[in-house]
């Protein structure tokens, strides 16, 4: 099962150190293979290096793609994390 | 294969494995392993990654307690980065496919990632390359364990690739195993450049970010003659450079044969070839290159390297070492020529609007007598037992020369009273590098033991051109007839007064000018040690008669272009091998 959802990075820092760590932490709890797409770049949701290289700053449009048994749950959690602004502030 | 152009710092060709100092601090001993050992290398990688992750996790916990969230977040990132399964799989693939050692494969992958970060426009991301270096070092330390080598004790030849080499590093490096240098920063007069020339090791500097283009263990070619570095060359390129290396060695051997031969023209005129040096140890190298003495020992290095004025003892130690290395041959110490572009950090924050015409060099010294006296004391004390001469730079009026001499007398009296051993009757001379000093050289000649023409400043002041300013640099030429007339003036004034005149600007080391300078009457030339063999070769091929004819002809020209073309033709006649 392949699912995808688009959203926008809301938090001020963008996808930098701390948000990336939360993201990787969350993504690695699922068995689904999750990737994040941003313009022509894409990153494994479990690779902090690749996520950082997305250079997704505040306001950037991203697409989260999940593939696997728990794809729906993974997608909900990860998109939810982005939408919550990574609990910044 | 990557090819990069920098500044040639020391000639010659070197080919060998890279030791990248910036990130490693130690070298990767081997690049490949026997296919049977691939599994063992992967285990090494896994253990190192695991240990590093554990270390970072501990650091993260400690940082969270002591330093708060922000610092601990950095270690948290390091932790995530090191446990990234894509990092591991990329390295494992290299080990399996190429049979690379774990250390080499990991270094290669980290290097690739560092390069990605460097190419990013975002300043924040760009900074993260520091974190990557840090992580690389941590993991390599665990992979190599006890096997890692100390750079001071290299066991096989390497090419040093580094951001910069500090003087202390350069001294501790094991020069027997260093094939060449490729350095991010620096220029022709940087420490690395001077030291590599002394050691006769090819070097290229000002390569910007060569440390990120080349990974430890990769094969590197250094073409120090042309200022080119090639990383990861193909077989054909290596072969081409091996041929160049052989050519260069043959050329060097021919020059070395000249070392012990006198610099004398075919009709018997002796020319004294001296060396310009900046570091004490360079004196020994200069004599080995065939110099008869040191014509110019620049003392600025001592002042520029430090964040405070060097003490009398520090200066004494450095000068003493230079005098010792000169082994009883003449050595001319120039008093410190600070100011203008060489302004050090501890100078008062007073900015001259036009520093080249401002309070610099001997003017600065005369305005700061305490500092000047300390400097002179160190020189006089170090001069004991050597053939030392003292020279004042940038003299523009007789008053300045007299003041400088009076200060020197004061210092001698002080040393006498204190009973400290010092040189009492050393020859005192001056640089002629202002048009004023050149035009009044007859008057100056009555008051000094020798004069040395500094053509770099003399050209700049005569033509009113700052050659560092690219918009006017094309107007700068030492062979401008106006400059040459001043040079002749000084030589004649010296001859009338029986005062020795030498020339120590860059002109002295350029083969194109050798015959002209001899023809103008100069018998002493002081140059960079590396230039001595080639200048000697020209001297030994020419005759005084030919030189004088060349000088007569040149003095009739009105335009520097005419002079240049004529001198090029003449050099081709006498030295068809020269590259001009």
Describe the structure.
The complex is a heterodimer of chains A (89) and B (580). Chain A has one domain: HPr-like (Histidine-containing Protein, Chain: A). Chain A is built from three helices and four strands. Chain A has helices spanning 17-27, 48-53, 71-83; strands at 2-8, 33-38, 41-44, 61-67. Chain A is globular, with a radius of gyration of 11 Å. Helix content of chain B is 49%, strand content 14%. Chain B contains 24 helices and 18 strands. Chain B has three domains: 30-147, PtsI, HPr-binding domain (Enzyme I, Chain A, domain 2, Orthogonal Bundle), CATH 1.10.274; 151-253, Phosphohistidine domain (Glucose Oxidase, domain 1); 259-574, TIM Barrel (Alpha-Beta Barrel), CATH 3.20.20. The mean pLDDT of chain B is 87. Chain B starts with a strand and ends in a 6-residue tail after the last helix. By secondary structure, chain B is an alpha/beta fold. Chain A binds chain B through residues 16-18, 20-21, 24, 44, 46-50, 52-53, 55, 57, and chain B through 73-74, 76-77, 80-81, 84-87, 113, 116-117, 120, 122, 124-125, 128.
Which structural class do you get from the secondary structure elements of chain B? alpha/beta
* Oligomeric state, counting identical vs distinct chains: heterodimer
Q: Provide the number of structural domains of chain A.
A: 1
Query: Which term fits the overall shape of chain A?
Result: globular
Helix percentage range of chain B: 40-55%
For the record, the CATH architecture of the largest domain in chain B stands as: Alpha-Beta Barrel
% residues in beta strands of chain B: 5-15%
Low-confidence stretches of chain B: none
Poorly predicted runs of chain A:
none
Tell me what portion of residues of chain A adopts beta-strand conformation.
25-35%
Q: How many domains make up the coordinates of chain B?
A: 3
Keywords:
heterodimer, A: 89 residues, alpha+beta, Histidine-containing Protein, Chain: A, 3 helices, 4 strands, B: 580 residues, alpha/beta, TIM Barrel, 3 domains, eight-stranded mixed beta sheet, eight-stranded parallel beta sheet, 18 strands
